[in-house]
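User: Predict the structure for this protein chain, please.
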Amino acid sequence: MLTVVREQLGRALFRRVAGPDGPATRARIHDTPGPRWFGPDRPIRTVHGDASMFIGGLSALLLQSLHPLAMAAVAGHSGYRGDPWGRLQRTSTFLAVTTYGTAADAQRAVDHVRGIHERIRGTTAEGVPYHAADPHLLGWVHVAETDSFLRAHERYGAHPLDAAGYDAYVRDTARVAEALGVSDPPRDRRELSERLTAYRPELRATAEARAAARFLLLQPPLPLTARPFYGGLAANAVALLPPWARSMLWLPRVPVVEDLAVRPAGQALTRTIRWAMKPPRQSRPA
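Assistant: Here is the predicted structure, written as structure tokens:
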């Protein structure tokens, strides 16, 4: 009975994040022979393959929304409200292909995204122009994502890395960032922190950013039965944000509640996801 529950939960979660073609895409990514950008021992594989990504990904979206130009591009062109699961599935597939796929497949995925970025242009409500292919704007998206994934893994990962391991993770992500058009991405955690600080004067919570936060945290397109589970992930995504980011988004901190309830719930949820999505053991010949 427990095995049946595990398999059903695992399939449901995988379908949400990978889409209906997920099994075929996974087989292509992992089973196609050829050189990879990252070998099996690289930290990027450890971080991106962990259940902590469910929390880190949501936290990254909240953090990224604080750059007005990035948020304007998302609000105007991504269709995240009309097709949030499609956007999640495309993002998760890109991460999987560039992390685990062949070098040729990874380059094709990068070229596809760069083509999309090149076409996305517009102006904010204040009349400021933006272009999704701008290396500086891409740099913000990259550092916000990398920092969120790293801190989520450090807090909720099954096997947290040491300081050298996380420095190597930042260096791994820089390989993908450069391919996407980011100029001089950070190569270790110190540089990552410095780059985040350098972007701070450009950040603010626009009306679009707060609307996105409300959608992500309070209005997820999920059945009522799944919302408590999602609510636990969302609470931990908020708790993972830097204090200054939470203040900008008007997301208060309740230290006692977070320490005694939110973080333990995050640990329990990531353990459950890890358990459900773990591939079944292959039967061995007698």
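The chain has a mean pLDDT of 91.
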